Amino acid sequence: MNLATSAAPGGRAASTPLLGDAREPTIFEMSVPGRSAYQLRTTGIPERPLSELIPSGALADSPVPIAEVSERDLVAHFTRLSHRQFSVDLGAYPLGSCTMKYNPKLCDTIAAMPGLADVHPGAPASLTQGWLAILVELEESLCEITGMAAATLQPSAGAAGELTGLLLMGAYHEANGDRRRRVLIPDSAHGTNPASATLGGYDVTTIPTDERGLVDLDALRAALDTDVAGIMLTNPNTAGMFEEDIAEIAAAVHEVGGLLYYDGANLNAILGVVRPGDMGFDIIHMNLHKTFATPHGGGGPGAGPVAVSQRVADFLPGPKAARLADGSYGWITPERSIGRVHGWHGNALVIARALTYIKVHGGDGLRRVSERAVLNANWLRKRISKNFPAAYDRMCMHEVVVTGTELKRQTGAKAIDVAKRLLEEGFHSPTVYFPLIIDEALMFEPTETESLQTLEALAESLDRIADEARVAPENLHAAPRTTPVRRVDEARAARTLVPTQDARIEESG
Amino acid sequence: MNLATSAAPGGRAASTPLLGDAREPTIFEMSVPGRSAYQLRTTGIPERPLSELIPSGALADSPVPIAEVSERDLVAHFTRLSHRQFSVDLGAYPLGSCTMKYNPKLCDTIAAMPGLADVHPGAPASLTQGWLAILVELEESLCEITGMAAATLQPSAGAAGELTGLLLMGAYHEANGDRRRRVLIPDSAHGTNPASATLGGYDVTTIPTDERGLVDLDALRAALDTDVAGIMLTNPNTAGMFEEDIAEIAAAVHEVGGLLYYDGANLNAILGVVRPGDMGFDIIHMNLHKTFATPHGGGGPGAGPVAVSQRVADFLPGPKAARLADGSYGWITPERSIGRVHGWHGNALVIARALTYIKVHGGDGLRRVSERAVLNANWLRKRISKNFPAAYDRMCMHEVVVTGTELKRQTGAKAIDVAKRLLEEGFHSPTVYFPLIIDEALMFEPTETESLQTLEALAESLDRIADEARVAPENLHAAPRTTPVRRVDEARAARTLVPTQDARIEESG
Amino acid sequence: MPDYTPHTDAEIDMMLGFLGLDSVEELFAAIPAALQVSGGLDLPQGIPEPDVAYAMESLAKLNTGGASSMVCFAGAGAYDHEIPPVVRALGGRSEFVTAYTPYQPEVAQGVLQAIFEYQTLVARLAGLPVANASLYDGSASVVEAINLAVSASRRAVVHLSAGVHPHWRSVVKTYARGTGHTIVDVPLVNGVSNFDAVAGGEAPGVVVVGYPTYLGTFEDLGDVRRHCDETGALMVVAADPIMASILKTPGSQGADVVVGEGQSLGTPLSYGGPYLGLFACTLEQVRRLPGRLVGETLDIEGRRAYVTTLRAREQDIRREKATSNVCSNQTLMAVVAAIQLGWLGTHGLAQVATRCVTATRYLSDQVTAIDGVTPLLPGVPVARDVAVTTPLDASVVLDRLADEGFLGGLALSSLTDEGDGSVDASVRDRTILMSATERRTRTEIDALAAALTKVVSR
Amino acid sequence: MPDYTPHTDAEIDMMLGFLGLDSVEELFAAIPAALQVSGGLDLPQGIPEPDVAYAMESLAKLNTGGASSMVCFAGAGAYDHEIPPVVRALGGRSEFVTAYTPYQPEVAQGVLQAIFEYQTLVARLAGLPVANASLYDGSASVVEAINLAVSASRRAVVHLSAGVHPHWRSVVKTYARGTGHTIVDVPLVNGVSNFDAVAGGEAPGVVVVGYPTYLGTFEDLGDVRRHCDETGALMVVAADPIMASILKTPGSQGADVVVGEGQSLGTPLSYGGPYLGLFACTLEQVRRLPGRLVGETLDIEGRRAYVTTLRAREQDIRREKATSNVCSNQTLMAVVAAIQLGWLGTHGLAQVATRCVTATRYLSDQVTAIDGVTPLLPGVPVARDVAVTTPLDASVVLDRLADEGFLGGLALSSLTDEGDGSVDASVRDRTILMSATERRTRTEIDALAAALTKVVSR
Ligand SMILES: Cc1ncc(COP(=O)(O)O)c(C=O)c1O
Ligand SMILES: Cc1ncc(COP(=O)(O)O)c(C=O)c1O
After folding, report:
1. Quick check: A142 contacting D, CB < 8 Å?
2. Nearest protein Cα to ligand 2, atom 12
3. Most exposed: A103, B157, B435, D55, by fewest CB within 10 Å?
4. Which residue's C-alpha comes closest to atom 16 of ligand 2?
C-alpha cells in the first residue's frame, strides 16, 4: 500500500473515552490535501483575478494552510474532543469562586434567536429597538439588585469590569482635582484585583486578613490616607466570609475621600439579601457568567457590567442605551464619560441571557438562589469538617474554603492530590491553593443547583479519600487513573514550549 | 445523617466513561418526591376541580408516578447516557445493510424549522402549501431515481413499505380477478421480507442462493406458477452482489403474471447507475433513513416510501399530495386506493430531510455517492481478504460479506468475537451472522462518507485481531474490555425478564 | 462541487489501482449495460447547502397554518404541547441521533437505558407490566395490538369502536386486506361504544376502544371489559398518554393491551410524523409483543446492563413466523418521550393533563355560548378534544378563522368518511373538532370565540 | 414556582436541622440586619420559562435591522458570514459550553486540544509562532498588544494609525487613562498611515496599523516596518483574519504582534459580542503574552496531553505584576473558530476571502456608478470594506435604504469622532462604509444599487 498510514483516520473513534483509549489526533493530522467540507452560497458575482483588485505586493503566493478535512471527519473530531471534557452538564463542578451552577437551556435558545444573534452592532437605533430595550432593562435590573444608580454593560468579563471601575475611580477623583495613587486590596483578593489596579495606574497596598478571615480593620485604618483612591473588596470575600465590618470599613474609606469598589464575583451569595450600594459601595462589577447563569464556555465568554452610585454615574463609558423622552430607545453618552471600553456594546448575547435568567426568577427567585447556595455551602462545610476543616470555622456564605493542612501533615497527601483523586469519584475538583492566604486550600462552591444527595455523595467521596490517604496515600499521588490522560507534565510544557502544531513538527522534524 | 444515601445523586458524574466508571442510575433512582423541572406558560384559564369535568369513575386517586428530578439532574442524566452510546458522529459504523453514513447537520436544521416542525397535520391544504410542495417534489424525485411512475410517502419505515407494497400487489391481482397466494423470497433476504409477506397474507416460498451469491435461476423458474403473486428482491442483494440475471428474472416472473418487488434498502449502491424500474420492477420501497441520510435515531425513525410502475399506481394509499390544475397543491386519493397506511401523511420531517439531501446532491451528486460507496466497499473487500475472505470473491456493490469460517476453524474465534474485539479498536462492529446463508458472516458497509484512511485503519485493526486470534484468542473472547459494560448476559435478560424499573423493584423487594 | 464524501482524485486513482480497475464505471461491470442509466438522472443540478436552506425556508414560509404563526386549536391525536429547550437540547444529542438499533449493547448502554426508562413510563401510564421500545405511530400500534390479540384469541373478528381515531380505523382496515381479519365497526351512541349494535355477529377475538375517544368522550372501561369477558375477546385500549396520567389506568380496568400515540410526549406536530406508537401488554402476551424490548441484565463482571431481549419474536430471527415485521421503529422519539416525561415529572404531567381538560372545557364553554354553536354531544363530559357544531360548513368556518389567525380545529368531514359511526350524518359537515392544550391562554380562547362569533354571524 | 434549585421543603428543613438553625434567614446572621434588604427587590415577579421566551421573542422582533430580515451590507469589523449548521452543532456541544477554564487538564483535554488547534491556526494566519487562547475582542487585543509592546520597548509612546478601527482607537485611549501611555494619532493619507505627520515627536515604543485598514485600504507593511526600525518600536498589526488567508502574513513582513477581531470565524453578528480577540506574537515576547496559552506536553504515562502553560505570566499567580488582568476570556468563540476554520479548510477560507474582495469590489463598482455617489478614496484599492460618499447625509440615506429592506452600511459619522484622522471632514457626514461578504449575491447588490439610485435621486 502506498497509503500514508500515519495520516490520522477521522473515522476511528478510539480516542473516545467510551472506548477506553486516549489519544485524539489533531485536525492537522487528519488533513488530506484536496479534501473539503465547506459549501458556500451561489452568488452570481463575476469572478475577477485577485491581482487586479489587491496591491500585488500584498498578495500571498498561496493561501495560509488551515486543514483539509471532510465534514464527516470534522464532526467526528470535535464530537470526540467533547467526550474528553468534563462540564457542568456531566456532573457537579464545585470550583470555588467560579459559581459553576447549572445554566438553563432556555438561555441558549434565547441567545440563538435570529432576532438577537443576527443583528449587526452598527445598525441604527431605529432598527434595533429590541436590543436597546434589553440593554436598558438589564441595566435597571442590575441597579436594583446592587442598589446602584447606573451601569455600563460594556465590560466583557469581571477583570474588564474591574479595570473599568478603577478608571471610573480615577476619573471621579480627577474631576475633584484629586490625584490619588494607591488602592487597597485585601490579601485574600482574586488575582485580577491587583492586576487590574496596576493597569488602572495604581500602586497596590495589600491589607492582611485577620484570624476571623476578614479584613484586618486596624491594618486597614493604618493604611488609609488621602493618597488612597479606594479599596477593592469582595463581599463575601474569597474565603466565603461576609465582611461583617463593612459599615465601618465604608465609613473609614469614605472619610479619607476614597471610594469603595465591590468585586461582584461572589454576588451569588447575597441576591435579594443585601445590596452593595446599601453597604456603602460606590462601584461594583458583576460577573454575569457566574451569577446570572451564562455557561462558562470552557473559559469564557462572560460579561462584567459595572454599576455605580450617583456620584460616579457621569463618568460611565459610552455610548449607553437609554430610554428617550419619546418612549423610544436610543444611545446617549454620559457627560464626562471615560470613553469606550469595548469595541461595540459589550457581550450582548451574554446580557440577553442574564436578563432571561432574571426574568424567570424575579426578585423572590433570586433571593431563593442565594439562600440555597448559602445553605448548600454551609451544609457541606459542616458535613466534611472532620477530615477537611473549614479555614474559618463558622457560618460561611456561598462557598467554603477548607484546609488540607492536617491531612497533609498526617499522610503526606496534598490538596492537589485530593483534587486529582476527586476526579475519579465523578466530581470536578474544587479550586485549590486559593485564596493564597490559606494553607492547602480547597475551595468548594457547590452552588444552589446541586442537590443534597449530590452533596452527600461528594462528602462521602471526600471521606473515602481521607481514609485512603491514611492507608494508601500512593493512590492519591497516582490519581487520576481513569481519565483520558493522567497527571500531565506541566514543567515540560513550560520548558519545551509547544504552543502550536507547527512548533511540534519543527521539533520532531 | 437521616439522608437516604441510596438515592442516586444526579450531580455525580462517575458513570461518564470519561471518568472511567460505568454505572448510571436510572432516572427513577434519582427521583426525590417534591422535586420538579417543568415550567408551563401562564394561561389565566380559571381552574376547576377535575371531578366536575371528568366522570368520577374514570378519575384516578393520584397521578401516575413518573419521576421527580430537577432540570439540572435531568440534564446530567441524559448527557451522561449520551456518553455511553456509540454513534456515527463518533466514528465509523460499518454496520452492513444499514447504510450508516454521515448525515449532514443541515438536514437537522431544516427538520427543526418552525415552518415545518410546528405544522399540524390536519391543517387544511390552503395553509400548508409548502409541505404539500415538499411531498410532491420528493415523490417526483424518488420516481426519477427509481424509474417509477408514482409513489406513496406514507410508510414509516422499510418494513412498513414492504407490507404496503405487498398489499398493492394483492390489490393489483385482485383487480385482475386474480387471487394469488405465494410470494417468492430468496434465502438471503432481510427478515422483514418474509415477515411482511406473512402479514400481507402470503405464503413464502424461499429461493436458494447459488454459488455466485445470486438467486438460483433454475430454482426460481421451478417455483414459478400462476399462484405466485410476485417476488421480493433486494438488488444488490444482502450479500452485496448485483443480481446480474435481473432481466431474465423479471421476464420469468412477469411471464406467469407475477410482479417484481424491489427491497430498496440497498439503494445506496445504485443511485444514478441503474433504476429498479428499468430493471423490470413494479414496486419498490426505499429506506430514506439509509440512502437519503436521515440519522438513524438509535433505531428509528425512518421512512419507507413506496414507488410503483404505472399499472400499480391507481392502488396507492391515499390521500396523496398532488399538484392541482390551478398550480396549487392539494390532496387526491387514487382511484382504487388500498387506503391509509399511516395515521397522517407519513414521517414528514424525514421526508423533508431526504429532499434536502437530494437537492444538495442533484443527479450527479447522487451518482457520486453510489460510486464512492461501491469503491469503498470493494477496496475494503480486497484489503482484508487475506484474513477475512469475501463470501463471494468478486466485485461487490456497496457492502461486502466476509466469512470468519477459516479463522474460527484455525483459532476458535467466532465472528462475534471479532465484532466485540473491533469495538476496542474504535470502530462499530459490522453486522454479524447475516445474511443467514453465510457461515460466520461479517457484513461490512463502509458507506461513501468514510475516508481511505479510516478504511485502512479498520483493515489494520482486523489484521491485528486476526493475528491476535492466532496467538491469544482469549483476548477476543474477553473483548470488549474498555467499554462502559463488558459482554452482557443475554440469556439472563430473557430468563429473568426485567423490562421496567418496576419489575426490578418487585424482584429485589 | 463539495459534497459529503472525502475522496480526493488522487485517492480514487489509488483505490482503483489497488483494485486493478481503470475507471469508476468498471465498478458496475456486473450491471448489464443496457439497464444502466445513460445521460444521468433528470434531477435539478445539486446546489450548495446555503442555497438549499434558502429554498427549504421559502417552502416553510408557505406553511401559513403552522403553530408558530397561528394559534392552534387543532388536536385529533396531534397536539401543540410545550417542548422546552432542555428537552430539545438533550433529545438532539448526536449520540442518540446518529446511532442505530443497539445491536452491540456494550457501546449502546445510552440508548438502551433510555429505552428501559421509557418502557417503565409507558408501562406505568398503561397500568401494565411490559411496554415495548416503540412502534411507528398510534395507528401502527393499533394494528399490531389487533394482530397480537387475534393470535392470542385465535379469533379473527375485531370489534373496532368508532371512538378510535378515524385515520387509525382506516389503517386497520387497510392492513386487514393482508391479514384477512374481519373488522366490525362498533358505532358510538352519545360518545360511548354501543356493542349492542353489533351483537349477534361472530364473537370477536379483539375489542378495541379509544380512551378518551377521539371525540373526547369517556368509555366505561368496566363495560368494555364485560363485553370482552362475555365474548372471550382481548381488550385493547387506545389511550391518550397525557390523559392517562390522571385517569385510572386501562390496565387496572382490565385492558390486555394498551396502545396510543406518543406525539404529545415531546415530539413536535411535525406535519404528522415521525410520531411515536406506544404499546404495552400483559406478561401473558409478552412473547407475542411486536417490536423491540429492552431488558435489564448483568455484564460478565456483574455490572448492571441493558440489552434487547426476547429477540426470538423478531423478524430478523423468526422471519415469516415473527410476531411483527417491524425493524426500524421510532427510538429517538421514545428517548425524547423519556426526557420530556422526566422534565414534567409526576406533577408536571398531571398538571398538563389537568390544564388540557380545563382549557378544553373553557374553550367549549366559550364557543358553545355563541348563538348557533352547540356541542355535538350536549351534556356529555369531554376532555382533550371537543366537537362543536356550527350553522355553517365547517371548512368555511375554519377558512375564515384562519384569516383571523386561528387554526380553529379540524372539520369532522376531513377526518371521517361518510357514514362514520361516530357522528350523526346530518351534522357531520358542520362539526369541528377542537382542542386546547396547556399552552392555550384565556386571551387566545376568548379571541377565538370572538372571531367565531363574527364568522357565524356573517 | 419552579426554578432551577432541587431543594424540597423537607430537605431544607433537614439541612437547617443539621446546621442547628431554625430558619433560612439565620444563614445570613453575619450580615448586619440594618443593611439587609427589607421587603424584597423591586423587580417584576418571576415568570415561567415559556412566558419569558415569549417576552424575549417579542423584543427580538423589534430588531428589524437583523441580518435575517434585512440584507446586510454593514461591516466595519463585524461581518455577516456563513455559519453552517455543522459548526453551530459542534460549537454548541454542552461539554464545550458548560465547562470552565481547564484548571484540571486531565478532564479538560477536549477544550485544551481545541484551543491548541485554534492557536495553531491563529499563529499561521498571523505568520508568527505563538498565539494565545483568546482575548475579549479586537479592541482588547490592541490594548494588550500595546501594553506588551510598551513593556518590551520600555517606551510608552504609541503611534496609533487612524486606519485602525475607530472604536478600537477609542478603547485604547480609555485604557491609556490607567497606563498613562501617550497615544499619538497617525493620520491616513489616501488610506495609508502618514508617519511623516507625527515625525519629530518622542520616539514611539509601539506602532499600530490596521491591515486592511478599517476603510479597506492596504498599508505597505514594509514601510511600517521601516518606521519601526527607525524608531526602535515594536510593530503591531491589527489584521482581518479572513483577508489574512490570502495576503502575505504580517509576521513575514516584520510584525512583532498581530491582533485582530475573530468574529468572522464562526461567531454570529451578536449585536457586537461576545466576539473574539485574536493575539499572536514572536517567541521573544512569549513571556509577556497576555491571557492563557495552551502547550503540548506528556502525561506521566507518556501520552500526548495539553495544558495551560507559562502560567507565571497570569494574574492568579503574579497578581499586580501579571502581564495582563485577563481571566475569563472568549474560549468558546475560540473553539468555534477552530471548528469554523476546520469546516472552511485552506481553500474554503481563501475562497471566502476572495469572494469578499470581489463582492465588495462589485458592490463598489455598482454603487459608485450611480450619479453623485463616489468612492471616498478614488483609485485606491480596497478590500473587505469600501467607503462611498453620497450627496446626502449618510444616516438619511441609510434610513431610506432600510425602508427598502437593506442595512446599507454604517455612517462614518456614527463610527468616528469629529476630526478623525482617517477621513476628510468635509465628506465625513456623507460617507457610508459598506461591505459585501461571501454571502451577498449579485441580485442583492444590484437591488441595493437600484434602491440607492432611487434614494439619492429623490
Ligand atoms: C473573586 C473574583 N474576582 C474577579 C474575577 C474575575 O472575573 P473574570 O474571570 O470574569 O474576569 C473572578 C473570576 O474568577 C473572581 O472569582
Ligand atoms: C435489506 C433490508 N430490507 C429491509 C429492511 C427494513 O427496513 P426498516 O428497518 O426501515 O423497516 C432493512 C433494514 O435493516 C434491510 O436492511
Report:
1. no
2. B265
3. D55
4. B97
